Amino acid sequence: MITLSSKGFSLIEVLVSVFVLMLGVMTSMSLHLTALHSTQQSSMQTKAMHLAVELAESMRANLITISEQATTAQNNEDCERVTTPCVEQRLSSDEMSHWLQRVSLELPEGQARICQDAAPWDAGSGQLSWECAPAESTTQGPWVIKIGWHDKMDKHASAHATPKLALTVQPSQP
């Protein structure tokens, strides 16, 4: 009778050990997927920061004259292909158009907005906002470069990407 009670015990031990091993493998896979997502997000943040810094340097060097209309309008004429020389305003518009194209190509559904914004952070929603809040004083608020893209893990899934980066710029004064 002693031998009958021990039958099947080794099978239970094997099943428990397989279950524990499976749990360990699944945890390892979960950690690996989280690391991949973090790496991807870090890469997107780095690309966005490089794009924003590039535009900020052009703004400070007065290579690009910023206006609210120039940040959204796409220029149909390319300064590199026209026979007449580019005037400063058209050259700035052309540079902005090329920069906006790079944002949309380098980031998944990338969008950008450059505006004077006194409060880029929306405390109510706890995230950056595309809207530009006017400055309370008579002087305009600082220029802010806002860049956003779609993320698979976005909590607020919508038709528009939420801004994920905002860089404040003080362009040089003429």
UniProtKB/TrEMBL annotation:
The keyword Transmembrane applies. It comes from Oxalicibacterium faecigallinarum. Coiled coil: none annotated. The chain crosses the membrane at residues 12-33. Keywords: Membrane, Transmembrane, Transmembrane helix. Residues 31-97 form the Type IV pilin Tt1218-like domain. This is Type IV pilin Tt1218-like domain-containing protein. It holds the Pfam family N_methyl. The keyword Membrane applies. It comes from the Bacteria.
